[in-house]
Give the backbone structure.
Amino acid sequence: MGRVIGLVAYHVFKESVRDKVLYNLVLFAVLMISASYLIGQLTAGQDVKIIKDLGLAASEVFGLFIAVFIGVGLVWKEVDRRSVYNLLVKPLRRHEFIVGKFAGLALTLFVNISVMAAALYAVLALMNRLEPGLAKAAVEAPVLDPQLLKAFALLYVQMLVVTSVALFFSTFSGPMLSAAFTFGLYIVGHFNADLANFEAVVKSRAAGWLGKALYYVLPNLAPFDVKAAVVHGQPVSAAYVTLTTGYGLLYAGVMVTLAVIVFSRRDFK
Amino acid sequence: MLPLLTAAVLLWSGALSVQAVREARHPLPPVSSDILYFRGGAAVSRAALGFDAILADLYWIRAIQHFGGTRRAQESDKTYRLLYPLLDLTTTLDPHFNIAYRFGALFLSEPHPAGPGRPDLALSLLERGLAADPKRWQYAQDAGFVHYWYRQDYKSAAGWYDRASRIEGAPWWLRSMAASTLAEGGDRQSSRQLWQQIYETTDDTWVRDNAQLKLAQLKALDDIDALAALVSRYAQARGVPPRSWNELVARRWLAGIPLDPSGTPYELKPDAPGGVALAEKSSLQPLPPQFLRKAGPTT
């Protein structure tokens, strides 16, 4: 089973390379290099903070776009091109197909985010080398702070959650609607804490319970955002990263399972 | 391929030419840098979806541009009206944006026309910074500085220095600064020590340059006092005040034309206190008003 999933995943990764998805890395590199030059002229000595903020924010934006726009087409494209018929007559079970698709995009995202993290460190190292005074000015956190990796790790897990949501919608809906639903859940996921405290602002106990229930059902994405904390050198404990990662992986697992269920029940005759 | 590329380049050149002609005939409306976009920082922070920090950076860059642009502008009505809202947005979006509090307080406190002259807003910004990061003794030190330099309220300044010195990790000299501010507040020498301390301890180029300017201004004030005393002695000895520095140089009262620390010659001005003044074109203008002599012109 693992070999089949691996094969599907490999083909998804290969297809994303063929579709020039990794070109976004060039855009990222250009953005970071030009920003590192321009920002020095504009920010009154805050170059390091702003480059870190920009690098992390850009990684999230690129990751989000890849997760949503590729994620929503993962299954839909196969159905639309009718290639799913050829695939399903092969010794490939439906759950292997879905899990393989998810793993393939997870691999694409992993490569993307890893390269973006490496590019950000490279730009910071270059800035540090060209202008050694920056290290002294970056009083809150070291220029090449290993803590940044925690932000990248949680960003990656967050993108896995978004991918799983996109994949789930992709099993029964077209790409436009799936993208709209996924972006919607991404936005809701960042406001989710309000639902947990809904009972404090409404009189109805039922509405309070409903808010609480939605809080647990919908993805809670705000905790994955530790960008500001790591940039300011505030501690992000290993326990926090582990628990948040655990939640993200389990939630993604739930969405992939739901995607398998929906896809398994679809009639392709 | 080549013909297509050539065609694309030609079309692009054509588009640029047409655009240039249109803009020559119908000039673009001036870009207003006075647009704030949003006023409620809390609402923007909610809508930022985890991109608060990068939005805070954008507002910080806008705050610097607004401050620098208004400061360099030629018009006399420099209101800096967006400075505080921009700093407020920046620090609401990123409550730990250290430099936005510290520079922002300096920007806000600078007297008109170099700044909006609002030390009250600077203090409120620093108090918000302390609420977000109670261990940042630098904010309390800056509040003391705002009281000291811009409000000449030495008692409050000493109180803030004392408060800063009690925060964990604060340097030892803050305690002595609290005591000396209370004892010698407003004295040029203690001000010099304060700026020297800032100059030697800051890691930031802007703050260091600003401290260097203030130290140069204090040096200029001392020079002006010394030159005024010399001019007065000369007037007593010769019966008339000198009409130019050359007179003093020719009679060996001075070794050369006296220059301020920026390299601009001081001016003999009968209507200035002491008869000596900093040249209008000197980059050290304006001198801190609290240290200027109030005496009338020399006779």
Remarks:
- The two ends of chain A are 25 Å apart (CA to CA).
- Chain A touches chain B at residues 42-46, 49-50, 53-54, 56-57, 60, 133, 136-137, 139-140, 186-187, 190-191, 221-222, 224-225, 227-228, 231-232, 234 (CB under 8 Å).
